[in-house]
Amino acid sequence: MKWFRSDNYSIPVMLAIGLHASIIIVGFVAVDFSESKPPEPKRPPIVNATVVDVSQTIIGKREADERAAKQQAAQVVADKKKRDAEQAQKKLETERRALEEAKRQVAQAKQAKEKAEAQERAALQQRENDKKQAAAKQQQQADEKEKKRLAQVADKKRQSKKEEEDKQQRELARKAEANRLAEEERKRKDESARLAAEEKALEEAKQEAAQAAAAEAKERAALETQMVQSISSLINSRVTSAWIRPPNARNNMKTQLRIFFLPNGEVMNVQITNGSGDALFDQRAVDAVYKVRKIEELAQVDSYVFERNFRQVDLIFNPQDLRN
């Protein structure tokens, strides 16, 4: 272990003492022992201030315009999201109804198939029962024949003179059996022919039902086309009646509109898909659609027909009574 000598600490001790003495001397010198009064506090300068409304400045107005533009853009985005959500919901509803209709048709087809299979099983069971009855009858006849043979043998033993007569009787019995078997074969063929005729009649009935369904679908399509044309003409007529002619309207001016309807017939939105080139003419056409507001006849249209034809309607607005 290393030892330190005590005289090594003399210099630091002297430096510390000198530093403390210097601090004490400076403190006495700095203290002012005069009896003079303390200096009076300085009065703060008077400042005239004017209140300024920041919103009336150029910066304030610009900020207000920016906030208004952001709010308007946010509102437009919110409206678009709402419309998209409504359209998605309606599309899902349409798909759900189509799926339910498909399930219903599949269930009907399944029921028809099960009914046909049940009829086929019943017919097969009937044929099996007929076969069993025929076999039982044959067995009964065979038993009777055996009894008759035994009786004939006994008779032959007892009455040898009737042997020829008995032989003739057996021949007659053989022929009767052959006739019986032939009759059964004829009946079997008749049954097969009857079943074939029934199957043919069933197939013809199916074809007639398919043709009737096709004719009905064609008739519904014709009626739907007629109704679409009638309501489209009605929409055009009412928009034309509500239209306010601008002073600069001329012949051959037309604008193409896309009108979005709700299922109750109310106008949800109007878009210009192909303008006439005249902004006032186009705007008056849009105003006429909103003025009509609602086509009550659309509320009576079947939802499937409405979704296919009237959820959105393209209207070519072309008044014919304009000036040249």
Overview of this protein structure:
This protein is elongated. The chain folds into two domains: 58-222; 227-317, Fusion Protein Consisting Of Minor Coat Protein, Glycine Rich Linker, Tola, And A His Tag, Chain: A, Domain 2 (2-Layer Sandwich). Helices cover 69% and strands 6% of the residues. Helix 3 crosses helix 4. By secondary structure, it is mostly helical. The protein has five helices and three strands; from the N terminus they run αααββααβ. A three-stranded antiparallel sheet has the order 2-1-3, covered by helices on one side.
Keywords:
2 domains; 3 strands; single chain; mainly alpha; 6% strand; 324 residues; three-stranded antiparallel β-sheet; Fusion Protein Consisting Of Minor Coat Protein, Glycine Rich Linker, Tola, And A His Tag, Chain: A, Domain 2; 69% helix; elongated; 5 helices
Brief rundown of the structure:
With about 325 residues, this protein is mainly alpha-helical. It contains five helices and three strands; from the N terminus they run αααββααβ.
End-to-end gap: 124 Å
Whole-angstrom Rg = 56 Å
Query: Structural class, please?
Result: mainly alpha
Which sequence of strands runs across the widest sheet?
2-1-3
Shape: elongated
Number of structural domains: 2
Major sheet attributes: 3 strands, antiparallel
Low-confidence residue ranges: none
Mean pLDDT metric: 84
DSSP helix count? 5
* Strand element count: 3
Strand content: 5-15%
- The helix/strand order is HHHEEHHE
Helical residues, percent: 55-70%
